[in-house]
Design a protein that fits this description.
alpha/beta; binds dicarbonimidic diamide
Length: 220
């Protein structure tokens, strides 16, 4: 085990059983004209973390540790998008409707692709998920178990929605979870802070958080 400086106390990283999960760094959330934009959000906040996420991915590639990229994306017939999700609220465009980058949050459309600066490479897992959490209807837990993974490092967007949901799901399944706090972002600064506080409170009730520099320093 290697101790990483973290909140609320050092994170015990197991180099032989750790994978990185990069949540939903896709054009639909990060670029103008996508799903995030259709909900009235300022997507520039999310684009700002791309260099740090790229640094984190580079760190994992250098170590030779597994990387999983998720995308929130539905089947073209929307059979995996419940009406309760699709019909909620008053967005300018709904899931499945044609936007500037194709149909919003639909697998295979340009908007569902991961931003070019973070594009997955051969050997990395790319997982389309219909929900907020990465374990719902994906078979990911079985895949991680088959790989012997016990520790998960998290990055991506948005901190309080898909990242936090996935961390909570992972925590319930017994994974030791670390959030890289400068490699995650929310459309709302106060929600990012609150999510990290909730995750790390009560003795790391969901998991730990740390900046990328602490992870790099431990392996320098
Ligand atoms: C949202 C996500 N915010 N990836 N999805 O709807 O956090």
């Amino acid at each position: 085990m290697i101790d990483i400086k973290a909140r609320p106390f050092p994170y015990p990283l197991d180099p032989d059983h750790t994978a990185l999960v990069v949540i939903d760094m896709q054009r639909d959330f990060i670029e103008p004209g996508g799903f995030g934009d259709s909900l009235g959000n300022d997507v520039a906040r999310l684009a700002a973390i791309i260099p740090t996420v790229a640094g984190l991915i580079g760190f994992f590639r250098k170590q030779g540790w597994p990387i999983i990229h998720t995308r929130e994306a539905h089947k073209p017939d929307l059979s995996d998008c419940p009406p309760a999700k699709r019909n909620r609220g008053t967005p300018s465009l709904r899931i499945g409707e044609e936007g500037a980058m194709g149909r919003l949050l639909v697998t295979g459309e340009p908007g569902s692709q991961i931003v070019p600066a973070l594009a997955p490479i051969d050997g990395e897992i790319v997982l389309d998920k219909p929900g907020k959490g990465m374990f719902y209807a994906t078979g990911l837990h079985e895949k991680l178990q088959g790989m012997g993974i016990t520790h998960l490092v998290f990055a991506g967007v948005t901190t309080e929605v898909c990242v936090q949901t996935s961390m909570r799901e992972a925590n319930d399944r017994g994974y030791e979870c670390l959030l890289v706090e400068d490699a995650t972002e929310s459309y709302f600064a106060e929600f990012k802070k609150a999510a990290i506080d909730m995750i790390t409170a009560q003795g790391a009730i969901v998991g730990w958080s740390t900046p990328l520099a602490n992870l790099e320093e431990a392996f320098a």
